[in-house]
Amino acid sequence: MRWGWKTAGGIGALALAGLVGVVVGVVGWGGFNTVMEATNSMEFCISCHEMRETVYAEYKTSPHYQNASGVRATCADCHVPRDWTHKVIRKVQASGELYHWLIGSIDTKEKFEAKRHELARREWDRMRASDSQECRNCHSFGAMDFHKQTPKAASAMQGAEKAGKTCIDCHKGIAHAFPDVTAGHRRLFAGLSEQAKALALKPGDTAYALTGLALYTAPPAPGSAGDGEIAAATPVKILAAEGGALEVEITGWQRGSSAQTLYAQPGKRITTAKLSAAAAGRAETLRTVTDPETEQDWTEVRLTAWTGAGGYAATLGALWDYGARVYDANCSLCHAPHPPGDFGANDWIGKMNAMRRLTKLDEEEGRLLLTYLQSHAKDSAR
């Protein structure tokens, strides 16, 4: 009997311990879940002024805050996954945001605006990776009545569905102000420009035009008209330096009988220089080849000319880094950017003509971007 009593008592103690464990687990789980859900609330999200005075103020002017249907999407609806696993992962990632809050990374409007594009891009990439799941929790192609949409919207939505696009490919800046996507690469270019002014070039050096540079057939006098233009990224060999001018040697390819445009490679319309008739007439013929695809003759020429100093980069890599930054910032707004090697050099001309109008790139930025893409195309000799 004593043995049985001890056994029964032991089982009772184990059962009690198990029950206590279950209760503690339930309470602990409930407490953890309650805290996690509390961090999803609008009140928590706007409890710091960084959010309340910027993105929250913007959100209140958007259809996600107030609309005809009376349905309001909160911060968590768009920025926190609903399924448990991805929600916990997102919360762990957010711990880094608390660190930056503590050190004041964006505690002023100026700091926030300086990082707005970086922050937005990070969120766009996250949404694209999840196939815009948070958007699809409320919106889906299958639930859309295309007859009630405008013809333009219906065509765009149906085209996106067929192409397998995700929501964030086309819908950015819906609830918040759109970032200045040009700010980062323009700061980078300003730095390159300062380096160019300080670059001391000497005969024998090879340098690369940082931007379009006026070209002259003789040492330029103040206010003199140019005889053409060297395109950004064009390599030149320095022959002489005289005052604030450089004598340079340029090589390029003329297409057929068109002598006033020079290209970087035969068969590839990668522009390196535009010449006046007088400048084109000074070019020395080196050789002629026939493009096997078009059976058109291309003639390599060498031209000696003059340019101003202070407009060159010492390495081509610096320009390509800049071009990649321009491409990534501007051409990711409507879709994931294609690697430059997806298309041929000549194909990129039409694609740039079609897409350039959708960006805020100026003329010179657009030219450099085209040169970058063409120079890294699948059929370009690097």
Verbal overview:
This protein is α+β, with helices and mostly antiparallel strands and 382 residues long. Helix content is 46%, strand content 17%. Strands 1, 2, 3, 4, 5, 6, 7, 8, 9 and 10 form a 10-stranded antiparallel beta sheet that branches. Helix 11 runs antiparallel to helix 13 and helix 14 packs antiparallel against helix 15 (363-375). The radius of gyration is 31 Å and the shape is elongated.
Taking the sheet with the most strands, its summary is: 10 strands, antiparallel
Structural class: alpha+beta
What is the overall pLDDT average?
A: 89
- Report the portion of residues in β strands: 15-25%
H-E order? HHHHHHHHHHHEEEEEEEHEEEHHH
The tally of beta strands, per DSSP, is 10
Helix coverage percent: 40-55%
Domain NapC/NirT cytochrome c N-terminal: 16-180
Subcellular location: Cell inner membrane
GO molecular function: electron transfer activity; heme binding; iron ion binding
Organism: Roseomonas genomospecies 6
Furnish the topology, listing elements before pairings.
Layout lengths: L1 H37 L3 H4 L3 H4 L2 H5 L15 H5 L4 H20 L5 H21 L3 H4 L14 H13 L3 H4 L12 H16 L7 E4 L3 E2 L13 E3 L4 E8 L2 E11 L2 E8 L2 E8 L1 H5 L2 E7 L6 E12 L3 E2 L2 H15 L16 H9 L7 H13 L7
Antiparallel strand pairs: 1-4, 1-10, 2-3, 3-7, 4-5, 5-6, 5-9, 6-7, 8-9
Helix pairs in contact: 11-13, 13-15, 14-15
